[in-house]
Description:
Layout: H1 7-13, H2 20-36, E1 41-47, E2 52-58, E3 65-72, H3 79-89, E4 93-99, E5 105-111, H4 120-142, H5 144-173
Parallel strand pairs: 3-4
Antiparallel strand pairs: 1-2, 2-3, 4-5
Amino acid sequence: xxxxxxxxxxxxxxxxxxxxxxxxxxxxxxxxxxxxxxxxxxxxxxxxxxxxxxxxxxxxxxxxxxxxxxxxxxxxxxxxxxxxxxxxxxxxxxxxxxxxxxxxxxxxxxxxxxxxxxxxxxxxxxxxxxxxxxxxxxxxxxxxxxxxxxxxxxxxxxxxxxxxxxxxxxxxxx
Length: 174
């Protein structure tokens, strides 16, 4: 059978991965990166510890090597799996190429430090808190002139009392 296949397909199949979907996906992404995107140096690899076929890619002759992970859209992926892949490849930056059955590719770059999103309940509470804060700020802005006048009147009252006290002291000293 392999005598009618592309040599790269044969070599990818011999790396150690036994999943034919992963092998096909990796082959199609490999061809896309080589032929359509014309990247400089594309090498296929297999990481046995995470059961992952991936590609080491240089976009240009003198650029840094990047990791491209072909991922079939038939398979789900989670944040923990992404972190596992990052640890397995010992890289902070990974580019996922999600390949669908109709040969569409979607490319996502992922960097270390992903955080799970907050739960809907926590998000709702934070939103309500922010809305209350905005309402308070709106009320303060609306009443700023009243508060300013009130503060001036309080300051004036204190000034009047201090002035009367000073006058009384001056009268006593005479």
